[in-house]
Automatic annotation (TrEMBL):
One of its GO terms (biological process) is DNA damage response. It comes from Shewanella maritima. PANTHER family: PERIPLASMIC IMMUNOGENIC PROTEIN, SLR1258 PROTEIN. This is Oxidative stress defense protein. InterPro entries: 26kDa_periplasmic_antigen, SIMPL/DUF541. NCBIfam families: PRK11087.1. Transmembrane segments: none annotated. It comes from the Bacteria.
């Protein structure tokens, strides 16, 4: 009897196909990904060289000295900026807004009676939000609405400050957030502070150069940033004692400061 060769041939073909399928395939994406990584590294190295060269180029190639001049002028305030607010809670949004508007309108009317200019009053804002109560059984439940309005007033006569604060409380304003002491001659004092900072930088350079038996030959570079003037301010709540409020803004001072950086050329 003759054995058929067909089953073995089929088996061989199946094994051949399986081996072919299991062979690892080389991805054509690997070279492009590798090239991208190499390019990124090259770009990073190039950037480092450029940054290093730029830093070296900005540094002077002659003997030099860097100093920082600073100054501070303490002045007595002659005006103030107050920020007060009203917070009202009501059953619905319309009622909350109406009550807060009423308090603000009454206070603004008192300000105008006190001869406060319209440009010195800012009250065009309203923050209205829903109030919720949470419990495990009922989840979140709406309990009402809160209306919040801020009023910023520039007071150009400090003698009026206590009176205006009392008036705000009488009209329904229930928060005194800030009292910022200011000076009407701030620009003038700022210029004086800048000149003192320049003088300080120059005197430091001259003194240090002298200590090293050399001399300053001139200014090579100046760096200046006009920062905002820091002010000392007092924060208080509406329930604060009136006498304490009066003392807080009567005795305060504000600091006018400035800073300048300079690079001086030294004698070779």
């Amino acid at each position: 009897m003759k054995l058929s060769q067909k089953p073995s041939q089929k088996l061989s073909q199946m094994l051949s196909q399986k081996l072919t399928l299991n062979q690892p395939r080389l991805s054509t994406r690997q070279p492009s990904r590798l090239a991208g990584q190499i390019g990124a590294v090259a770009l990073l190295i190039s950037s480092c060289f450029l940054f290093s060269n730029a830093a070296n180029a900005s540094a002077p190639e002659f003997p030099h000295l860097e100093t920082v001049g600073s100054s501070e002028i303490l002045v007595s305030p002659d005006m103030a900026e107050i920020v007060v607010a009203v917070r009202v809670e009501a059953a619905n949004a319309k009622q909350a807004k109406a009550e807060s508007d009423k308090a603000v309108a009454a206070f603004v009317s008192k300000l105008k009676q006190a001869k406060i200019a319209t440009n010195d009053i800012a009250s065009a804002n309203l923050n209205l939000r829903a109030q919720y109560h949470y419990d495990k059984e009922n989840g979140r439940q709406l309990t009402g609405y809160e209306a919040h309005r801020d009023i910023t007033v520039t007071v150009r006569d400090l003698n009026m400050l206590n009176e205006l604060l009392d008036s705000a409380l009488e009209q329904g304003i229930n928060h005194v957030n800030q009292i910022n002491l200011k000076s009407s001659k701030e620009a003038q004092y700022k210029q004086q502070a800048r000149e003192l900072a320049i003088k300080d930088a120059r005197e430091k350079a001259q003194a240090i150069a002298k200590s090293f038996d050399t001399q300053v030959q001139g200014v090579w570079q100046v760096r200046y940033h006009d920062y905002q003037v820091p002010k000392r301010h007092t924060e208080m709540r509406a329930m604060a004692d009136a006498g304490a409020i009066n003392q807080s803004y009567q005795q305060g001072q504000i600091a006018i400061t400035d800073t300048i950086e300079a690079i001086f050329r030294l004698q070779d």
